[in-house]
Amino acid sequence: MNAMNQKTFERPISEPVNRRMLTADQIDDLGEAILSLTREVWVLTDRIHVLEAVLESHGVLANAEVDAFQPGPELQAQLNAKRDAIVQNLMRALRVAPEARS
Known about the structure:
102 residues; mainly alpha
């Protein structure tokens, strides 16, 4: 899905909602999703550490440079937009009724 097709929400994602997001029969689905996301985060984390180690071993990068890096306004805006898209996709998936899922 590209950015033009993404639904925007009327309120900020961080604003609390006074409703139940999931029904009781979706709790197992939520647990499965969390485990799946955790596995994916680990794969990404592992690859980043390996990539940093390889780059450092070739003298291309010092890990301290990565830790100290401060993105400029343009890169920060791009990172923010990508983060917001991921969060919106997650929120959209959690708001879809089970019968509407394919």
